[in-house]
Amino acid sequence: MGRVKYTDTDVSLVARMLRAEAEGEGKMGMLMVGNVIVNRTAADCLDFKDLRTISQVIFHVQGGNYSFEAVQKGNVFYNRARTAEKRLAKQTLDFWREHPSKFALWYFNPYGPCPPTWYDQPFSGQFKQHCYYEPKANTCDSVYR
């Protein structure tokens, strides 16, 4: 049993997201991006209430835009899911959690230093170019389970 329910289609979708969002950051960077996707699926708080499937998380719209740049710009659809990314996607869906993305619900590449907060949420750490942010204490207990 994985951290969240998923199908083979979800594995491919997460794999495509890993490749589109973090291919340049290697396997560890892709795992961290996958972890944020899984965390958002498991979270039932803040901007992620009622998102219970991988597809709902990936195609989530906030403020009139898709939450993920790869979906916003469309490049998630231009690359198929390869075997290597599918393995990484399955790893995050099943069990993988590491700092700084362990409890993170947000990440972005600021093309500069990571700000101490992102939408008022605290900085949890950085891996290569991505900054990770987890919810403030006592605002999203479901992500910490």
Give a written overview of the molecule.
Helix content is 37%, strand content 14%. The strands form 2 sheets. A 4-stranded antiparallel sheet has the order 3-6-5-4. A two-stranded antiparallel sheet has the order 1-2. The chain has 5 helices and 6 strands; from the N terminus they run αααββααββββ. Helix 1 crosses helix 2 (26-42), helix 1 (8-22) crosses helix 5 (83-94) and helix 2 (26-42) crosses helix 5 (83-94). With 145 residues, the chain is α+β, with helices and mostly antiparallel strands. It is globular.
Shape: globular
- Biggest sheet: strands side by side, in what order? 3-6-5-4
What is the mean pLDDT?
93
Give the topology string: H per helix, E per strand. HHHEEHHEEEE
Low-confidence stretches: none
Radius of gyration: 14 Å
What's the end-to-end separation, in Å? 15 Å
Which helices and strands occur, and which strands form pairs?
Blueprint: H1 8-22, H2 26-42, H3 54-58, E1 61-62, E2 65-66, H4 69-72, H5 83-94, E3 106-108, E4 117-118, E5 121-127, E6 130-133
Antiparallel strand pairs: 1-2, 3-6, 4-5, 5-6
InterPro entries: Cell_wall_hydrolase_SleB, SleB_dom1
Pfam families: Hydrolase_2 (PF07486)
Domain Cell wall hydrolase SleB: 24-133
Short description:
This protein is an alpha+beta fold and 145 residues long.
